[in-house]
Design brief:
Blueprint lengths: L2 H4 L10 H22 L5 H31 L8 H7 L2 H10 L4 H6 L1
Length: about 110
């Protein structure tokens, strides 16, 4: 009788607890070996470079923030002319156009 004829689906299967323990141990050994094989090896130089690189990036960002803040602090906004100054320098055509556009604005009409 061949091996294929002796294997069937009839129960109960006769497997001892020791067989399951051996199988579990074999699976555990293979998976730990696979994890160790795929784990990246970090040298002391690489592990020392990472914090130094992070610190350099942080310092560069702080320097950019300081320079940008100093530039904005020293630059003054251009003074905007008041409405009276704009009306004093406007042409008569512009004044008529503005008056026609804003004819119902009481405050604007008082300034004209």
């Amino acid at each position: 009788m061949s091996t294929l004829n002796r294997i069937d689906r009839r129960l109960p299967y006769h497997t001892s607890d020791a067989d399951f323990e051996v199988m579990a141990e074999r699976i555990r050994l293979r998976t730990t070996a696979r994890v160790e094989a795929t784990a990246p090896s970090t040298s002391s130089v690489q592990s020392a470079r990472r914090p130094a690189l992070r610190m350099a990036i942080v310092m560069a960002l702080v320097a950019v923030a300081i320079v940008t803040g100093a530039w904005f602090a020293t630059s003054e906004p251009e003074p905007q002319p008041t409405l009276a100054e704009l009306l004093a320098t406007a042409s008569p055509e512009t004044l008529r156009e503005v008056a026609a556009t804003n004819y119902d604005d009481i405050i604007f009409n008082q300034q004209i």
